[in-house]
Amino acid sequence: MKPTVAKKATPAAIAVLRQATALAPKRKKASDGLLPSAAHLAASPTSDHNTGYAVDLTNDPDSGVDCSDIFEKLKEDKRVKYLIFNKKIWSKDKARLGNRAFTGSNPHTKHLHISINDGHGDDTSPWFWWMNQPKLKNQIKAAISVIPTKKFVPAPKAHHHCCCKDCPTNKK
User: Fold this and answer.
1) CB atoms < 10 A from the CB of 80, how many?
2) Which residues are CB-contacts of 30 (< 8 A; sequence separation ≥ 6)?
3) What is the tens place of the pLDDT at every residue in 56-88?
4) Which residue of 10, 108, 148, 166 is 20 to 30 Å from 28, comparing CA positions?
């Protein structure tokens, strides 16, 4: 039987990426993910990505998105079902065991996987409550769409006036 895939991610999952972008507008996003690719679906037919209750957040400590820290802090969030990062897994239902070794095919070294508990998919309250709140303009930018890459247009060359008589620009 083919697994069912949600048509869109939950608001809570989308909020993770938007809030991270508002906090760190220049963060890398190469490993961000919401819904599964066909390959992910084939490899992990029971993944929370299939239901829209999971999100992958790219690790980019240089921009302020340090998934090592986020992994530890999100253990306190009631919305979190389980977390995977850097060959470790932590789950709310096995919290007493602490961080356990994660031996899945993807070691999750480039991104943090966050699975969201059922019943919390609409909760878009701050995911990064311990960090400084983003500027309003960054929140708005993150809430709309990805800003397209601007084309580089070189500035026109300014006419050079030189004070020396041997300069080619002074010769006619």
Assistant:
1) 18
2) 58, 110
3) 999 999 999 999 999 999 999 999 999 999 999
4) 10
- In this prediction the pTM is 0.78
| CA distance linking residue 18 with residue 31, whole number of Å | 14
Work out the angle at residue 142's Cα, subtended by the Cα atoms of residues 138 and 144, and round it to the nearest 5 degrees: 120
Report the alpha-carbon distance of residue 20 to residue 128 in Å, rounded.
8
Angle at 52 between CA 46 and CA 54, to 5 degrees: 75
Cα angle value 114/92/142 (rounded, 5°)? 25
Identify each DSSP E strand in 1-160 by its residue range: 54-58, 80-85, 88-91, 100-101, 111-116
**29-65 pLDDT per residue, tens:** 999 999 988 888 888 888 999 999 999 999 999 999 9
Is the Cβ–Cβ distance between 100 and 71 less than 8 Å? Answer: no
For 40-64, the DSSP string reads HHHH-TT-GGGGT-EEEEE-BGGGT
Q: How far is CA 50 from the centre of its chain?
A: 18
- Contact predicate 22/134, CB 8 Å: yes
